Amino acid sequence: MAGDQKGKAKKEQIKGKAKETVGRAVGNEKMTAEGQAEKSKGDARQAKEKAKDTFKP
Question: Of 7, 17, 28, 45, most Cβ neighbours within 10 A?
């Protein structure tokens, strides 16, 4: 399960970064903000998974 969550986090980060980049390229502030939010969500998920790995026995 943890590997699935790590993969999901990475996918959110990549998708968010792409959306942010496209938004900036076309001058769409809404898309840029959505991309940043999605990337942040992926970052948070990744941090949670790393914390769980740290406390594994």
Answer: 45
Residue whose token pair is 């999605």: 38
**Cβ-contact 41, 16 below 8 angstroms:** yes
Residue 13 and residue 39 in contact, taking contact as beta carbons nearer than 8 Å: yes
pTM (two decimals)? 0.81
Q: What is the DSSP letter of 55?
A: T
User: 14-31 pLDDT, tens per residue?
Assistant: 999 999 999 999 999 999
Residue 46 CA to residue 17 CA, distance in Å, equals 15
- Distance in angstroms (rounded) separating the CA atoms of residues 45 and 31: 21
